[in-house]
Structures are given as structure tokens and as C-alpha cells.
Amino acid sequence: MPRVQDLDILRPALARGPLNAITDVGGVAVGQQTIIEGEGAWRGHGPFRTGVSVILPHDGNLYEEKVPAAVYRINGFGKYAGFEQIRETGEIETPIALTSTLNMPRVADALISHAIKGSPHIGVGFRETGLKGYASVNAVVAECNDGYLNDSQSRRVDEAAVFEALRKASTGPVEEGAVGGGTGLTCYNWKGGIGTASRRIPETLGGFTLGCLAQTNFGKAPDLTIAGVPVGQVLSPPNVPKPEGSDRSDAGSVVMILATDAPLDARQLERLCKRASFGLARTGSICETGSGDVVIAFSTAYRIPDRSDRVTEQRTVLGQEGDQITALGRAVVETVEEAVLNSLFQAVTITGRDGNTSHSLPVDEAVALVKKHRIV
Fold first, then answer.
1. How do residues 25-42 score in pLDDT, each as one tens digit?
2. For the chain, what is the domain count?
3. Lowest-pLDDT range, 122-126, 193-197, 211-215, 251-255?
């Protein structure tokens, strides 16, 4: 399936990164575990169309070397772990995991196990050195509801699945569409999932890279807009009969992860988070009442030691913050828009529990409409 960049339908103001992915930000890795098991009617265990995606800001011990971070709630109808402490401290200390709604607590538990494995003093203190402090750990998990296609009640994403996603984490190309935490999701009534994109701001402003990874499960078909063209007014998914007992919510949710190598603090990262809503709007989103639309942002420019032996720290900061944040804000808008569209363009049709089907967007028809009706 083609990506947006291959189709000459978006003409961004900023340059794309080499991979056009969140992994264009140096050191950032993405791992995904996809679970597709069984078919037919739900009988208490399966079928499963679910998974987990993990984003690692660097390849070291995140608990010992945290990164600056921020979270922002556009619309709060969701179940998330770790957000309040990020607001308080401005730091992330575990990989970020994206999964389905009822799997969220199980995935958080797995991230805690992963952190303890790397930092055995968590919860019990530094017995060998005599240092005091029984540190906890703040696992970061966000979710979207995949109940239309998946037996979400059985909570199939276990610790083994999370550890496998972590093992697979790579700084290379990112698989998109119906994979990982996007396996069972639907976007604008078409098959959604995972999408990503990146931009580089001008060298005169530092040449920094910003990438977005989106988990898409929101919107109604008539609202879908591509490159300013309301293609959803023409294209609509096949009229698949709704099986008795199925539950398909059109409000849905979207989670956007922003990564950058620009030396930003939590305040500046939150400013970027707020720009994500403009990228969503470009695709047609109106952030319906029942949707959960959230953003997590982090910087890889410096690391924050868990227990520093220094009284003060010196760090590089932006020298032209106004112009640089404006440019990075544009990068946010462009990457969110393209990541959402890539999640649609890369997805394949999936049939899940009880025969419920989420159809892939007819990309050729959508592109033809854009090229016919756009102004330039």
C-alpha cells in the first residue's frame, strides 16, 4: 500500500525526514506486537484483533535516565496511565505503550515489571548502599477501544506480548496500519490503526527533527478530509449489516506521540502538544464528546538522571524560542495530519469478532478525488 508521501497529494512546507517516521528523531525506537487469533462468533475467548505498540525515547535505562515530557488532553474520554505524574514532574521514565482500552492495566503492569527488571531497587530501596528511598515507577500507557473487531473482554495483551514488542523495538522504518495497538481500530469508519510521519525545520532555526506516531480510532466517514478536499462527502464504507450485540462507536479516540531532538522543557513541549489539534482538524476531526484525544510529547535532547549527584545542571536551551516553536508547531500540524492519513492509507480490511468488518479506504479513489478537486 502506498504512503501519503508517494502520492503527491500533500505538499508540506517542511521537509520530511529520511524515513518520514517518528524514528527519524535520533535514538527513538518503535516496537509492535500484533495479535490476530481466531474467527467467527464470540464465545467468551476470542476472536482477537488487538496488540500493543511501544515507543522508546532512547535505548538506555529510561528509569535511570528520564526524558523531558508533557501531556495534553484535547478531549478526555479515555483511560490513561501515568499522565498526572508527567504533568507534575515533566518527565517520562518508562517506554510509552499504546494498546486497547481494557488491556491498559495489564500493559501498565508489564511496563512496571520491565522497569523493575532494569532497576531492581524500585519499591525496596538501595539495600547495598544504605541510601534511603523506596522509589515507585510511573508507567505510561494510552489506549483506544478496539471492541468492534476484538474480544476486548478477555484482555489478550499480556506481559509476554509487551515484552515482545519491547524486544522488537527498532530505530528503522515503522510498520503502519492494522498493527500493534492499531490492529483492531477504525478511523472515519474506515480501517485505521498506526500511522507516522516526520519533519525537519530549517537549519537557520536549528535543523531539528520532529516526528509523530498516531493511534487512530475516531471520526465519521462524511467528515474525512484529505489535503483540504472533503472526500468523505463522496466516499463511504460498504453498508455492512451490524450483527446483533455488536457495539461500534463512531466517536472513538486518537493518541498522538510527538518526539523531537530540539532541547525543549516540559512547558515548551506542552505548547507543541496543543498544536496537534490543528493537525487533526485538517483531516476532518471535530473531537466528538465521547472521544479521547490526547497528546504525549518528549524531547531526546537531554536526559534527567534519577538520582543526580550534582546540585545544579547546565543544559542547552533554544536561543530563538518564538521562531523555533512556531516552526516546530508547523511540524506538529503537518506530521499529525500525515500520520493520521498514513494510518488509513496503510490499513487493510480486517474482519473480527462476530463477523464485524472494518474496510480499508479505497486509496486510489480518494487520491483521484483530491487531485481532481484541489486548487493547486
1. 999 999 999 999 999 999
2. 1
3. 122-126
**Cα separation, 276 vs 70, whole angstroms:** 13
Residue 310: CB atoms within 10 Å? 7
The active-site residue, picked from 291, 299, 358, 360, is 291
Q: Residue 26 and residue 360: Cα distance in Å, rounded? A: 32
Instruction: Give the domain CATH number at 76.
Output: 3.60.70.12
The single-letter code of the amino acid at 71 is V
Task: Please report whether residue 376 resides in a domain.
Answer: no
Q: Does the annotation count 293 as an active-site position?
A: yes
Marked catalytic residue, from 24, 151, 293, 354: 293
Domain limits at 40? 4-307+316-371
Q: Nine-digit cell at 146?
A: 478496539
Which pTM was predicted?
0.95
The string of DSSP letters for 287-342 reads --TT-EEEEEEEE-S--EESS-S-S-------SSHHHHHHHHHHHHHHHHHHHHHH
List 253, 285, 343, 360, catalytic entry: 253
For residues 348 and 1, the answer to whether their CB atoms sit within 8 Å is: yes
Give strand ranges (E) for the chain.
29-37, 48-56, 65-76, 91-92, 96-100, 140-144, 186-187, 190-191, 193-200, 209-218, 252-260, 292-299, 304-305, 350-351, 357-358
